[in-house]
Amino acid sequence: MEPSAAGHPTPRVLRLVNAGDGPQTSLLRSGNTPGTRRVVRANREASRLEDDDVRWVFAQQVREALEGGRAAILTPDRRRDLVAAGVRQGLRPFDANLVIAIVQDQAREPDEAVNAAIPPGLRMVRAPRPPAGIPSLAVVAAAILILAGLMVATLVAWLMG
To answer: Are residues 119 and 102 in contact, defined by beta-carbon separation less than 8 angstroms?
Structure first.
């Protein structure tokens, strides 16, 4: 009588396909798979977290907004406001929600020392990109002066003309 007929499931055996020493195996052993360098670089960048880092600042805002002690409750309206604040600071909505979840999870830990530290998962949230295309005040002032000079020169040429 077979084991499956007796009510026992047939045991399944997992096996590695193409387990030989082909080119794919050597790539996996060497750690040089495509994209590995990008992942290593992203992990290094994410591991650095300064006091003025947007992720840390936003995490502090979330921590202050939590209600209910270790229950770490956020009302839907408050959560929506926090996500909007995170987006204004440069985080993507997904990353803002992820920071909220990380801070809530940490707040539910009974150990106070854990709650005072930087949440370990916070380092894995993508850092916001700096805003692109915002010119400095000096550049704007110089452009205004150049345009004003051109307008005056055009007006004088027209009047003398």
So the answer is: yes
